[in-house]
Amino acid sequence: MKGQMSSFDVARIVSELRPYIGSRARKSYHPHWEQVVLRLNPKEEAQIDLVVVRGKRIYLSRRDRPMPPNP
Predict the structure, then answer these.
(1) Entry pTM
(2) E-strand spans in the chain?
(3) H/E element holding 8?
(4) pLDDT per residue over 5-42, tens digit each?
(5) pLDDT value of position 11
(6) Out of 4, 11, 38, 59, which residue is the most buried by the measure of CB atoms under 10 Å away?
(7) pLDDT band per the 50, 70, 90 thresholds, residue 57
(8) Within 10 A of 28 (CB to CB), how many other CB atoms are there?
(9) Phi, psi (rounded to 5 degrees) for 50
């Protein structure tokens, strides 16, 4: 497992997140001690979650996962 991100990793993340520039973060959740989820509302699409796992990964997801009752 890699200890840090390379420039290729950063470029790939930027290219995947570029379509969501201008989206509004409707809610943020902290479902796990090392995870943060931002629920994004893009202008012309259905909502999508930006999931950040501390020190491991960042990804977009449309999966409906259980969240804590308080954001």
Answers:
(1) 0.80
(2) 24-32, 35-41, 48-53, 57-61
(3) helix 7-17
(4) 789 988 999 999 999 999 999 889 988 889 999 999 98
(5) 94
(6) 38
(7) confident
(8) 11
(9) -100, 115
Measuring CA to CA, which residue among 70, 56, 64 is closest to residue 9? 56
* 38 Cβ contact list (under 8 Å, min separation 6): 25, 27, 28, 49, 50, 52
Inter-residue contact 51 to 34 (CB < 8 Å):
no
What's the CA gap between 46 and 38, in Å, rounded? 14
The whole-angstrom separation of Cα 17 and Cα 67 is 23
Average pLDDT rounded to a whole number, residues 46-62: 91
Q: What is the pLDDT of residue 48?
A: 93
The pair of structure tokens assigned to 68 is 């804590």
- Enter the tokens of residue 61: 């997801």
What 3-state class would DSSP assign to 22? coil
